[in-house]
Design a protein that fits this description.
The structure holds two protein chains of two kinds.
Chain A (H helix, E strand, L loop, with lengths): L1 E10 L4 H11 L4 E8 L3 E8 L2 H10 L4 E10 L6 H7 L8 E7 L6 E6 L2 H8 L2
Antiparallel strand pairs in A: 1-3, 1-4, 2-3, 4-6, 5-6
Chain B lengths: L4 H4 L3 H22 L1 H9 L21 H6 L13 E7 L7 E6 H17 L7 E4 L7 H13 L2 E4 L5 H10 L4 E4 L1 H14 L9 E4 L6 H11 L2 E8 L4 E7 L6 E3 L4 E6 L13 E7 L10 E7 L1 E2 L11 E2 L4 E2 L4 E3 L2 E3 L1 H9 L4 E12 L2 E10 L8 H19 L4 E5 L14 E3 L5
Helix pairs in contact in B: 2-3, 5-6, 8-9, 10-11
The chains are: A alpha+beta, B alpha/beta.
Protein backbone atom coordinates (compact mmCIF):
# COMPACT_ATOMS: atom_id res chain seq x y z
CA UNK A 1 0.00 0.00 0.00
CA UNK A 2 0.94 3.64 -0.37
CA UNK A 3 1.72 5.84 2.62
CA UNK A 4 2.58 9.49 2.96
CA UNK A 5 5.87 10.18 4.60
CA UNK A 6 6.85 13.59 5.89
CA UNK A 7 10.47 14.72 5.34
CA UNK A 8 12.05 17.55 7.28
CA UNK A 9 15.34 19.29 6.48
CA UNK A 10 17.18 19.90 9.73
CA UNK A 11 20.36 21.91 9.90
CA UNK A 12 22.97 20.48 12.25
CA UNK A 13 22.39 23.02 14.95
CA UNK A 14 22.10 22.50 18.66
CA UNK A 15 18.52 21.90 19.77
CA UNK A 16 17.11 21.69 16.25
CA UNK A 17 15.83 18.12 16.54
CA UNK A 18 14.39 18.98 19.92
CA UNK A 19 12.44 21.83 18.32
CA UNK A 20 10.89 19.42 15.83
CA UNK A 21 9.95 16.84 18.45
CA UNK A 22 8.41 19.53 20.65
CA UNK A 23 6.29 20.90 17.82
CA UNK A 24 4.99 17.40 17.10
CA UNK A 25 4.30 16.74 20.78
CA UNK A 26 2.53 20.08 21.29
CA UNK A 27 0.26 19.29 18.35
CA UNK A 28 -0.47 15.79 19.58
CA UNK A 29 1.06 14.19 16.50
CA UNK A 30 2.18 10.59 16.93
CA UNK A 31 5.46 9.52 15.32
CA UNK A 32 4.85 5.96 14.18
CA UNK A 33 8.35 5.47 12.84
CA UNK A 34 11.27 7.55 11.68
CA UNK A 35 14.61 7.43 10.01
CA UNK A 36 17.23 10.14 10.33
CA UNK A 37 19.75 10.36 7.52
CA UNK A 38 22.72 12.53 8.31
CA UNK A 39 25.36 14.43 6.40
CA UNK A 40 28.03 16.60 7.97
CA UNK A 41 25.89 19.72 7.65
CA UNK A 42 22.27 18.73 7.83
CA UNK A 43 19.97 15.85 8.58
CA UNK A 44 16.93 14.55 6.76
CA UNK A 45 14.28 13.41 9.18
CA UNK A 46 11.78 11.09 7.51
CA UNK A 47 8.72 10.12 9.48
CA UNK A 48 5.43 8.33 9.23
CA UNK A 49 3.13 10.28 11.53
CA UNK A 50 -0.48 10.14 12.59
CA UNK A 51 -1.41 13.35 10.72
CA UNK A 52 1.10 14.36 8.06
CA UNK A 53 -0.89 17.37 6.81
CA UNK A 54 -1.02 18.88 10.27
CA UNK A 55 2.66 18.04 10.81
CA UNK A 56 3.57 19.74 7.55
CA UNK A 57 1.58 22.84 8.45
CA UNK A 58 3.03 23.31 11.92
CA UNK A 59 6.62 22.51 10.96
CA UNK A 60 6.43 24.86 7.98
CA UNK A 61 5.18 27.60 10.25
CA UNK A 62 8.25 27.05 12.38
CA UNK A 63 10.45 27.58 9.31
CA UNK A 64 11.50 24.02 8.48
CA UNK A 65 11.59 22.92 4.84
CA UNK A 66 9.07 20.09 4.72
CA UNK A 67 7.79 17.84 1.98
CA UNK A 68 5.30 15.04 1.84
CA UNK A 69 6.59 12.09 -0.14
CA UNK A 70 4.59 9.03 -1.18
CA UNK A 71 6.29 5.80 -0.13
CA UNK A 72 5.42 2.14 -0.48
CA UNK A 73 4.66 0.12 2.60
CA UNK A 74 5.04 -3.66 2.40
CA UNK A 75 4.19 -6.00 5.25
CA UNK A 76 6.82 -8.62 6.04
CA UNK A 77 6.34 -11.96 7.79
CA UNK A 78 9.51 -11.97 9.89
CA UNK A 79 10.94 -15.03 8.10
CA UNK A 80 14.53 -15.45 6.99
CA UNK A 81 15.00 -14.43 3.37
CA UNK A 82 11.74 -12.54 3.12
CA UNK A 83 13.35 -9.25 2.16
CA UNK A 84 15.44 -10.91 -0.52
CA UNK A 85 12.43 -12.68 -2.00
CA UNK A 86 10.55 -9.41 -2.01
CA UNK A 87 13.27 -7.38 -3.68
CA UNK A 88 13.77 -10.09 -6.27
CA UNK A 89 10.24 -9.54 -7.51
CA UNK A 90 11.11 -6.04 -8.64
CA UNK A 91 12.40 -6.08 -12.24
CA UNK A 92 15.92 -4.67 -12.56
CA UNK A 93 14.89 -1.81 -14.88
CA UNK A 94 12.58 -0.27 -12.29
CA UNK A 95 14.45 -1.32 -9.18
CA UNK A 96 15.74 2.05 -8.09
CA UNK A 97 15.32 2.19 -4.34
CA UNK A 98 16.32 5.56 -2.90
CA UNK A 99 16.09 4.47 0.71
CA UNK A 100 14.20 2.12 3.02
CA UNK A 101 13.46 1.65 6.68
CA UNK A 102 10.94 -0.26 8.76
CA UNK A 103 7.77 0.49 10.64
CA UNK A 104 7.09 -1.82 13.56
CA UNK A 105 3.54 -3.04 14.11
CA UNK A 106 1.86 -5.67 16.21
CA UNK A 107 1.59 -8.09 13.29
CA UNK A 108 5.28 -7.87 12.25
CA UNK A 109 7.38 -5.23 10.54
CA UNK A 110 6.39 -3.09 7.61
CA UNK A 111 9.06 -2.17 5.06
CA UNK A 112 8.93 1.44 3.89
CA UNK A 113 10.45 1.93 0.43
CA UNK A 114 11.09 5.12 -1.50
CA UNK A 115 11.35 4.27 -5.18
CA UNK A 116 11.51 6.22 -8.40
CA UNK A 117 8.48 4.41 -9.95
CA UNK A 118 6.06 3.62 -7.12
CA UNK A 119 3.23 2.48 -9.44
CA UNK A 120 5.33 -0.04 -11.32
CA UNK A 121 7.01 -1.30 -8.16
CA UNK A 122 3.67 -1.86 -6.44
CA UNK A 123 2.40 -3.71 -9.46
CA UNK A 124 5.48 -5.94 -9.47
CA UNK A 125 5.12 -6.67 -5.78
CA UNK A 126 1.43 -7.47 -6.20
CA UNK A 127 0.99 -5.21 -3.21
CA UNK B 1 70.52 50.65 -3.51
CA UNK B 2 68.17 52.86 -5.48
CA UNK B 3 67.20 51.69 -8.96
CA UNK B 4 66.49 55.07 -10.57
CA UNK B 5 67.91 57.86 -8.43
CA UNK B 6 67.04 60.55 -10.97
CA UNK B 7 63.34 59.80 -10.49
CA UNK B 8 63.12 58.38 -6.99
CA UNK B 9 65.20 61.12 -5.37
CA UNK B 10 64.23 64.22 -7.37
CA UNK B 11 63.31 67.32 -5.40
CA UNK B 12 59.62 67.93 -4.68
CA UNK B 13 59.67 70.91 -7.06
CA UNK B 14 61.15 68.87 -9.88
CA UNK B 15 58.64 66.09 -9.22
CA UNK B 16 55.70 68.51 -9.32
CA UNK B 17 57.02 69.98 -12.52
CA UNK B 18 57.34 66.53 -14.10
CA UNK B 19 53.88 65.50 -12.89
CA UNK B 20 52.38 68.73 -14.22
CA UNK B 21 53.88 68.27 -17.68
CA UNK B 22 52.72 64.66 -17.80
CA UNK B 23 49.22 65.42 -16.50
CA UNK B 24 48.62 68.17 -19.05
CA UNK B 25 49.69 65.80 -21.81
CA UNK B 26 47.61 62.91 -20.44
CA UNK B 27 44.44 65.03 -20.11
CA UNK B 28 44.77 66.20 -23.72
CA UNK B 29 45.33 62.61 -24.75
CA UNK B 30 42.26 61.16 -23.03
CA UNK B 31 40.05 64.06 -24.14
CA UNK B 32 40.85 63.37 -27.75
CA UNK B 33 41.20 59.58 -27.64
CA UNK B 34 38.51 58.37 -25.24
CA UNK B 35 34.90 59.36 -25.81
CA UNK B 36 33.87 58.44 -22.25
CA UNK B 37 36.43 60.81 -20.71
CA UNK B 38 35.59 63.57 -23.20
CA UNK B 39 31.89 63.32 -22.30
CA UNK B 40 32.63 63.36 -18.59
CA UNK B 41 34.80 66.45 -18.97
CA UNK B 42 32.25 68.16 -21.20
CA UNK B 43 29.53 67.41 -18.66
CA UNK B 44 31.34 69.62 -16.13
CA UNK B 45 32.34 72.20 -18.74
CA UNK B 46 36.03 71.30 -18.80
CA UNK B 47 38.39 71.59 -21.72
CA UNK B 48 41.90 70.15 -21.81
CA UNK B 49 43.31 73.70 -21.73
CA UNK B 50 41.78 74.24 -18.29
CA UNK B 51 44.30 71.81 -16.82
CA UNK B 52 47.57 73.73 -16.72
CA UNK B 53 49.36 71.74 -14.05
CA UNK B 54 49.05 69.26 -11.23
CA UNK B 55 47.41 71.97 -9.06
CA UNK B 56 44.38 71.81 -11.38
CA UNK B 57 43.84 68.09 -10.92
CA UNK B 58 40.86 68.51 -8.59
CA UNK B 59 38.89 70.11 -11.42
CA UNK B 60 38.80 66.73 -13.17
CA UNK B 61 35.93 64.28 -12.60
CA UNK B 62 36.66 61.05 -10.73
CA UNK B 63 36.76 57.67 -12.44
CA UNK B 64 35.37 54.57 -10.71
CA UNK B 65 35.04 50.85 -11.33
CA UNK B 66 31.56 51.67 -12.67
CA UNK B 67 33.15 53.63 -15.52
CA UNK B 68 35.18 50.53 -16.40
CA UNK B 69 32.07 48.37 -16.18
CA UNK B 70 29.98 50.74 -18.30
CA UNK B 71 32.63 50.77 -21.01
CA UNK B 72 33.35 47.01 -20.77
CA UNK B 73 35.55 45.58 -22.07
CA UNK B 74 37.89 48.13 -23.63
CA UNK B 75 35.93 51.40 -23.87
CA UNK B 76 38.47 53.38 -21.83
CA UNK B 77 41.44 52.26 -23.94
CA UNK B 78 43.18 55.24 -25.50
CA UNK B 79 45.09 53.39 -28.22
CA UNK B 80 44.06 51.13 -31.11
CA UNK B 81 44.17 47.40 -30.41
CA UNK B 82 47.24 47.06 -32.62
CA UNK B 83 49.25 48.92 -29.98
CA UNK B 84 47.99 46.82 -27.08
CA UNK B 85 50.44 44.03 -26.31
CA UNK B 86 48.85 42.54 -23.22
CA UNK B 87 45.52 42.19 -21.41
CA UNK B 88 44.93 41.45 -17.73
CA UNK B 89 41.65 41.33 -15.82
CA UNK B 90 40.32 41.43 -12.29
CA UNK B 91 36.90 41.00 -10.71
CA UNK B 92 34.18 43.47 -11.40
CA UNK B 93 31.43 44.26 -8.91
CA UNK B 94 28.97 42.08 -10.82
CA UNK B 95 29.26 39.50 -13.57
CA UNK B 96 31.66 41.42 -15.79
CA UNK B 97 35.41 41.41 -15.27
CA UNK B 98 37.46 44.59 -15.19
CA UNK B 99 39.67 44.40 -18.28
CA UNK B 100 42.95 46.31 -18.44
CA UNK B 101 45.44 46.68 -21.28
CA UNK B 102 49.09 47.63 -21.79
CA UNK B 103 51.15 48.99 -24.66
CA UNK B 104 54.77 47.95 -25.03
CA UNK B 105 55.77 51.21 -23.31
CA UNK B 106 53.31 50.48 -20.46
CA UNK B 107 54.92 47.07 -19.94
CA UNK B 108 58.38 48.67 -19.89
CA UNK B 109 57.27 51.22 -17.30
CA UNK B 110 55.65 48.46 -15.25
CA UNK B 111 58.85 46.42 -15.35
CA UNK B 112 60.82 49.38 -14.09
CA UNK B 113 58.31 50.16 -11.34
CA UNK B 114 58.54 46.59 -10.06
CA UNK B 115 62.34 46.62 -10.39
CA UNK B 116 62.50 49.78 -8.25
CA UNK B 117 60.52 48.07 -5.51
CA UNK B 118 62.54 44.85 -5.69
CA UNK B 119 65.62 47.04 -5.33
CA UNK B 120 64.11 48.58 -2.19
CA UNK B 121 63.92 45.03 -0.87
CA UNK B 122 67.63 44.61 -1.54
CA UNK B 123 67.10 42.31 -4.52
CA UNK B 124 69.51 42.56 -7.43
CA UNK B 125 70.73 40.78 -10.54
CA UNK B 126 72.55 38.08 -8.58
CA UNK B 127 69.35 37.02 -6.79
CA UNK B 128 67.05 34.13 -7.59
CA UNK B 129 63.43 35.19 -7.30
CA UNK B 130 60.60 32.72 -6.87
CA UNK B 131 57.31 34.14 -8.11
CA UNK B 132 54.48 32.42 -6.25
CA UNK B 133 51.68 34.72 -7.32
CA UNK B 134 49.13 33.32 -9.72
CA UNK B 135 50.06 33.62 -13.39
CA UNK B 136 47.36 34.48 -15.89
CA UNK B 137 44.79 37.25 -16.03
CA UNK B 138 45.75 38.24 -12.48
CA UNK B 139 48.49 40.88 -12.64
CA UNK B 140 50.47 39.49 -9.71
CA UNK B 141 52.39 36.65 -11.37
CA UNK B 142 53.40 38.22 -14.68
CA UNK B 143 53.88 41.66 -13.10
CA UNK B 144 56.41 40.41 -10.56
CA UNK B 145 57.95 38.08 -13.14
CA UNK B 146 58.75 40.75 -15.72
CA UNK B 147 59.96 43.18 -13.06
CA UNK B 148 62.39 40.63 -11.63
CA UNK B 149 63.62 39.69 -15.10
CA UNK B 150 64.09 43.37 -15.97
CA UNK B 151 66.23 43.67 -12.86
CA UNK B 152 68.38 40.84 -14.19
CA UNK B 153 67.48 38.40 -11.44
CA UNK B 154 66.92 34.70 -12.10
CA UNK B 155 63.17 34.11 -12.07
CA UNK B 156 61.55 30.85 -10.97
CA UNK B 157 57.92 31.11 -12.12
CA UNK B 158 56.17 28.70 -9.78
CA UNK B 159 52.76 30.40 -9.66
CA UNK B 160 50.46 29.33 -6.82
CA UNK B 161 49.80 25.98 -5.19
CA UNK B 162 51.77 22.76 -4.84
CA UNK B 163 53.53 23.75 -1.64
CA UNK B 164 55.82 20.71 -1.71
CA UNK B 165 57.22 21.66 -5.09
CA UNK B 166 57.55 25.30 -4.01
CA UNK B 167 59.75 24.26 -1.10
CA UNK B 168 61.82 21.79 -3.13
CA UNK B 169 62.59 24.46 -5.75
CA UNK B 170 63.27 27.05 -3.08
CA UNK B 171 65.85 24.79 -1.49
CA UNK B 172 67.39 23.13 -4.56
CA UNK B 173 67.70 26.31 -6.65
CA UNK B 174 68.96 28.47 -3.81
CA UNK B 175 66.07 30.92 -4.02
CA UNK B 176 66.98 34.19 -2.27
CA UNK B 177 63.72 36.10 -2.65
CA UNK B 178 60.05 35.22 -2.95
CA UNK B 179 57.04 37.17 -4.23
CA UNK B 180 53.68 35.95 -2.92
CA UNK B 181 50.72 36.90 -0.76
CA UNK B 182 51.57 37.37 2.93
CA UNK B 183 49.11 34.68 3.99
CA UNK B 184 50.69 32.16 1.62
CA UNK B 185 54.12 33.03 2.98
CA UNK B 186 52.85 32.35 6.51
CA UNK B 187 51.60 29.01 5.25
CA UNK B 188 54.96 28.27 3.62
CA UNK B 189 56.74 29.26 6.83
CA UNK B 190 54.77 26.62 8.70
CA UNK B 191 55.53 23.98 6.08
CA UNK B 192 59.23 24.91 6.25
CA UNK B 193 59.18 24.50 10.04
CA UNK B 194 57.38 21.17 9.79
CA UNK B 195 59.93 19.83 7.34
CA UNK B 196 62.77 21.33 9.35
CA UNK B 197 64.47 22.72 6.23
CA UNK B 198 64.96 26.34 7.31
CA UNK B 199 68.73 25.88 7.61
CA UNK B 200 68.91 24.47 4.07
CA UNK B 201 67.42 27.68 2.64
CA UNK B 202 69.21 30.86 1.59
CA UNK B 203 66.06 32.97 1.42
CA UNK B 204 66.71 36.58 2.48
CA UNK B 205 63.78 38.70 1.25
CA UNK B 206 60.09 38.47 0.59
CA UNK B 207 57.93 40.90 -1.35
CA UNK B 208 54.34 40.41 -0.32
CA UNK B 209 51.20 42.02 -1.64
CA UNK B 210 47.75 41.50 -3.17
CA UNK B 211 46.07 41.40 0.22
CA UNK B 212 46.07 43.51 3.38
CA UNK B 213 48.43 42.55 6.19
CA UNK B 214 49.72 44.15 9.33
CA UNK B 215 53.05 45.24 10.72
CA UNK B 216 52.80 42.40 13.25
CA UNK B 217 52.33 39.84 10.51
CA UNK B 218 55.35 41.25 8.70
CA UNK B 219 57.50 40.92 11.83
CA UNK B 220 56.19 37.40 12.42
CA UNK B 221 57.21 36.37 8.89
CA UNK B 222 60.64 37.93 9.39
CA UNK B 223 61.12 36.19 12.73
CA UNK B 224 60.08 32.77 11.52
CA UNK B 225 61.99 32.76 8.24
CA UNK B 226 64.95 34.96 9.25
CA UNK B 227 64.33 37.27 6.27
CA UNK B 228 63.32 40.86 5.48
CA UNK B 229 59.71 41.11 4.38
CA UNK B 230 58.51 44.00 2.22
CA UNK B 231 55.13 45.28 1.18
CA UNK B 232 54.25 45.84 -2.47
CA UNK B 233 51.06 47.59 -3.52
CA UNK B 234 49.23 47.85 -6.77
CA UNK B 235 45.93 47.33 -8.44
CA UNK B 236 45.34 46.06 -11.93
CA UNK B 237 43.30 49.08 -13.01
CA UNK B 238 46.25 51.37 -12.31
CA UNK B 239 48.92 48.87 -13.43
CA UNK B 240 49.33 45.89 -11.11
CA UNK B 241 51.92 45.28 -8.40
CA UNK B 242 54.61 47.95 -8.37
CA UNK B 243 52.58 51.10 -7.88
CA UNK B 244 54.21 51.45 -4.45
CA UNK B 245 56.43 49.49 -2.09
CA UNK B 246 58.35 49.91 1.14
CA UNK B 247 62.09 50.33 1.64
CA UNK B 248 64.22 48.85 4.42
CA UNK B 249 63.02 51.49 6.88
CA UNK B 250 59.41 50.26 6.55
CA UNK B 251 58.01 53.72 7.14
CA UNK B 252 55.41 53.64 4.38
CA UNK B 253 55.17 52.56 0.75
CA UNK B 254 57.06 54.74 -1.73
CA UNK B 255 54.81 55.59 -4.65
CA UNK B 256 56.32 55.59 -8.13
CA UNK B 257 55.12 59.14 -8.36
CA UNK B 258 56.55 59.98 -11.74
CA UNK B 259 54.00 57.49 -13.14
CA UNK B 260 51.16 57.62 -10.63
CA UNK B 261 49.86 60.77 -8.99
CA UNK B 262 48.23 59.99 -5.65
CA UNK B 263 45.57 62.01 -3.83
CA UNK B 264 43.85 61.23 -0.57
CA UNK B 265 40.23 62.37 -0.46
CA UNK B 266 37.42 62.07 2.02
CA UNK B 267 35.17 59.19 0.85
CA UNK B 268 32.14 61.27 1.85
CA UNK B 269 32.89 64.74 0.50
CA UNK B 270 35.51 63.69 -2.10
CA UNK B 271 37.53 66.74 -1.03
CA UNK B 272 41.28 66.44 -0.62
CA UNK B 273 42.51 65.93 2.93
CA UNK B 274 45.86 66.82 4.50
CA UNK B 275 48.92 64.58 4.78
CA UNK B 276 48.71 62.12 7.65
CA UNK B 277 44.91 61.91 7.69
CA UNK B 278 43.19 58.74 6.52
CA UNK B 279 41.01 58.87 3.43
CA UNK B 280 40.43 57.17 0.10
CA UNK B 281 43.38 56.78 -2.22
CA UNK B 282 42.88 58.20 -5.72
CA UNK B 283 45.31 57.63 -8.58
CA UNK B 284 45.91 59.38 -11.87
CA UNK B 285 48.13 57.46 -14.25
CA UNK B 286 50.50 60.04 -15.73
CA UNK B 287 52.19 57.85 -18.33
CA UNK B 288 49.79 54.98 -19.04
CA UNK B 289 49.08 54.71 -22.75
CA UNK B 290 46.63 51.84 -23.20
CA UNK B 291 44.36 52.47 -20.22
CA UNK B 292 44.90 55.93 -18.76
CA UNK B 293 42.95 56.54 -15.58
CA UNK B 294 42.05 60.00 -14.40
CA UNK B 295 41.45 60.35 -10.66
CA UNK B 296 40.59 56.68 -10.21
CA UNK B 297 38.97 55.97 -6.85
CA UNK B 298 40.73 52.87 -5.50
CA UNK B 299 38.38 52.56 -2.46
CA UNK B 300 41.49 51.72 -0.44
CA UNK B 301 41.78 53.70 2.79
CA UNK B 302 45.19 55.05 3.79
CA UNK B 303 47.11 58.27 4.43
CA UNK B 304 50.04 59.87 2.66
CA UNK B 305 53.22 61.74 3.59
CA UNK B 306 55.48 63.80 1.34
CA UNK B 307 58.40 63.95 3.77
CA UNK B 308 61.78 62.70 2.61
CA UNK B 309 62.55 59.16 3.74
CA UNK B 310 65.69 58.12 5.62
CA UNK B 311 66.58 55.95 2.63
CA UNK B 312 67.11 59.05 0.51
CA UNK B 313 64.04 58.69 -1.65
CA UNK B 314 61.84 61.76 -1.91
CA UNK B 315 58.77 60.03 -3.32
CA UNK B 316 55.53 60.30 -1.34
CA UNK B 317 54.75 57.39 0.93
CA UNK B 318 51.48 55.65 1.74
CA UNK B 319 50.88 54.33 5.24
CA UNK B 320 49.66 50.80 5.81
CA UNK B 321 46.23 50.21 4.34
CA UNK B 322 43.41 50.56 6.82
CA UNK B 323 40.63 48.88 4.90
CA UNK B 324 38.20 49.66 2.12
CA UNK B 325 35.52 52.27 1.64
CA UNK B 326 33.39 49.69 -0.21
CA UNK B 327 32.48 46.09 0.57
CA UNK B 328 35.16 44.40 -1.53
CA UNK B 329 36.85 41.45 0.15
CA UNK B 330 40.25 40.10 -0.70
CA UNK B 331 40.18 36.32 -0.33
CA UNK B 332 43.32 34.37 -1.17
CA UNK B 333 44.51 37.45 -3.05
CA UNK B 334 41.36 37.50 -5.22
CA UNK B 335 39.01 40.49 -5.14
CA UNK B 336 35.50 39.39 -4.23
CA UNK B 337 32.40 41.56 -4.08
CA UNK B 338 29.31 40.32 -2.23
CA UNK B 339 27.27 41.62 -5.17
CA UNK B 340 28.91 38.93 -7.36
CA UNK B 341 27.47 36.23 -5.10
CA UNK B 342 24.06 37.85 -5.17
CA UNK B 343 24.07 38.17 -8.97
CA UNK B 344 25.11 34.53 -9.38
CA UNK B 345 22.40 33.26 -7.03
CA UNK B 346 19.74 35.40 -8.70
CA UNK B 347 20.49 33.53 -11.91
CA UNK B 348 19.64 30.23 -10.21
CA UNK B 349 15.97 29.37 -9.76
CA UNK B 350 16.57 26.65 -7.17
CA UNK B 351 17.72 28.90 -4.35
CA UNK B 352 16.64 32.17 -2.83
CA UNK B 353 19.08 35.05 -3.30
CA UNK B 354 19.56 35.31 0.44
CA UNK B 355 23.07 34.42 1.42
CA UNK B 356 25.68 34.88 4.08
CA UNK B 357 29.40 34.84 3.36
CA UNK B 358 31.68 33.74 6.16
CA UNK B 359 35.34 34.50 5.55
CA UNK B 360 37.90 32.99 7.87
CA UNK B 361 41.58 32.18 7.96
CA UNK B 362 42.38 28.59 8.88
CA UNK B 363 46.07 27.61 9.11
CA UNK B 364 46.92 30.91 7.39
CA UNK B 365 44.77 30.15 4.38
CA UNK B 366 41.61 32.11 3.66
CA UNK B 367 38.37 30.17 3.57
CA UNK B 368 35.01 31.26 2.21
CA UNK B 369 31.77 29.63 3.23
CA UNK B 370 28.60 30.73 1.49
CA UNK B 371 25.38 29.85 3.27
CA UNK B 372 22.42 29.62 0.95
CA UNK B 373 18.79 29.10 1.85
CA UNK B 374 17.06 26.07 0.37
CA UNK B 375 14.04 27.23 -1.57
CA UNK B 376 10.99 25.32 -0.32
CA UNK B 377 9.68 24.93 -3.84
CA UNK B 378 12.78 22.97 -4.79
CA UNK B 379 13.19 21.12 -1.56
CA UNK B 380 13.80 17.43 -2.12
CA UNK B 381 13.80 14.78 0.55
CA UNK B 382 16.52 12.94 -1.33
CA UNK B 383 19.99 13.71 -0.06
CA UNK B 384 21.58 13.09 -3.43
CA UNK B 385 19.39 15.86 -4.89
CA UNK B 386 20.51 18.26 -2.18
CA UNK B 387 24.11 17.25 -2.78
CA UNK B 388 23.69 17.89 -6.49
CA UNK B 389 22.26 21.29 -5.66
CA UNK B 390 25.23 22.07 -3.41
CA UNK B 391 27.60 21.07 -6.22
CA UNK B 392 25.73 23.20 -8.72
CA UNK B 393 25.81 26.28 -6.48
CA UNK B 394 29.51 25.71 -5.79
CA UNK B 395 30.19 25.54 -9.50
CA UNK B 396 28.18 28.67 -10.31
CA UNK B 397 29.91 30.64 -7.53
CA UNK B 398 33.33 29.36 -8.58
CA UNK B 399 32.69 30.61 -12.10
CA UNK B 400 31.67 34.02 -10.78
CA UNK B 401 34.28 34.49 -8.04
CA UNK B 402 37.28 32.56 -9.41
CA UNK B 403 37.76 30.91 -6.03
CA UNK B 404 36.07 27.75 -4.77
CA UNK B 405 33.69 28.46 -1.90
CA UNK B 406 32.30 25.94 0.54
CA UNK B 407 28.55 26.01 0.06
CA UNK B 408 26.28 25.24 2.98
CA UNK B 409 22.54 24.81 2.61
CA UNK B 410 20.53 26.30 5.43
CA UNK B 411 16.86 26.40 6.38
CA UNK B 412 14.76 29.05 4.66
CA UNK B 413 14.26 32.35 6.44
CA UNK B 414 17.24 31.82 8.71
CA UNK B 415 19.36 34.41 6.88
CA UNK B 416 18.62 38.08 7.16
CA UNK B 417 16.47 39.64 4.46
CA UNK B 418 17.86 42.21 2.09
CA UNK B 419 15.66 45.00 3.43
CA UNK B 420 17.57 47.46 5.50
CA UNK B 421 21.16 46.70 6.32
CA UNK B 422 21.33 42.92 6.22
CA UNK B 423 24.63 41.45 7.27
CA UNK B 424 25.91 39.65 4.17
CA UNK B 425 29.48 39.12 5.22
CA UNK B 426 31.10 37.94 8.40
CA UNK B 427 34.86 38.33 8.16
CA UNK B 428 36.40 36.40 11.03
CA UNK B 429 39.98 36.90 9.87
CA UNK B 430 42.06 38.58 12.46
CA UNK B 431 45.02 40.39 11.03
CA UNK B 432 47.54 40.11 13.82
Amino acid sequence: MRMNQISVFIENKEGNLLTVSKILKDNNIDIRTLSLADTSEYGMLRMIVSDEELAKKVLKEAGFPVSITPVIAVRTNNKVGYMHDLLEKIPAEIANIEYMYTLPSDEGSVLILKVANPDKVEEALGN
Amino acid sequence: MIWNESKECMSRDEMMHLQSTRLVKQVKNVYHSVEHYRKKMQAVGLEPGDIRGIEDIDKLPFTTKDDLRDTYPCGLFAVPRSEVVRIHASSGTTGKATVVGYTRRDIENWEECVARILTMANIGSSDTVQVSYGYGLFTGGLGAHYGAEFLGATVVPLSTGNTKKQLTMMRDLGVTAICCTPSYLMYLAEAIEEQGILNDLVLKSAICGAEPWTENMRREIERRLHIDAHDIYGLSEVMGPGVAGDCKFHTGLHINEDHFFAEIVSPETLQGIPDGETGELVFTTLTKEALPLIRYRTKDLTSITHEKCECGRTTARLSRFKGRSDDMLIIRGVNVFPSQVEAALLDMSEVSPNYLMIVDRVDNLDTLEVQVEVDERFFSDEIKELENLTKKITHVLQQALLIVPKVKLVEPRTLQRSEGKAVRVIDKRKLV
